[in-house]
Design goal:
122 residues, mainly alpha, Arc Repressor Mutant, subunit A, three-stranded antiparallel sheet, 5 helices
Length: 122
């Protein structure tokens, strides 16, 4: 039986994917419609071309997205979600919603914490 608390459990690889902000953002974007590489790069601010390529390959390897090359000059590549990827996107989207809803409270807590640590150091 899988046990994510065990150091050698393969479940941790899946949890690593879920914990990767880029992977989550990509899954959520391609959940609604297939997207081309450059469209993903333009939409996800802050991701480098190299990182986007690496994450897309990992998601494809894990069976969460599929890659389709379109015979154009130059070749156009489009990514779409698989049924397995859709189940993961549906599972992580509430976390995105929670983060957006609670951002202000988390930032306030961080400021209070930092201020208290600064006062203790003084």
């Amino acid at each position: 039986m899988p046990n994510a608390y065990s150091a050698d459990c393969p479940t941790r690889q899946i949890l690593d994917r879920v914990g990767d902000k880029w992977a989550v953002l990509i899954l959520l974007l391609v959940r609604d419609e297939p997207m081309r590489f450059n469209a993903l790069r333009r939409t996800i601010e802050g991701i480098s071309q190299k990182m986007l390529s690496q994450v897309l390959k990992s998601l494809e390897r894990d069976g969460l997205i599929k890659r389709r090359a379109i015979a154009t000059v130059p070749v156009t590549v489009e990514y779409s979600i698989t049924p397995l990827g859709a189940t993961l996107a549906d599972a992580v989207d509430p976390l995105r919603e929670w983060a957006e809803k609670n951002l202000k409270e988390v930032l306030n807590a961080q400021r209070r914490y930092d201020a208290a640590r600064k006062d203790m150091a003084a």
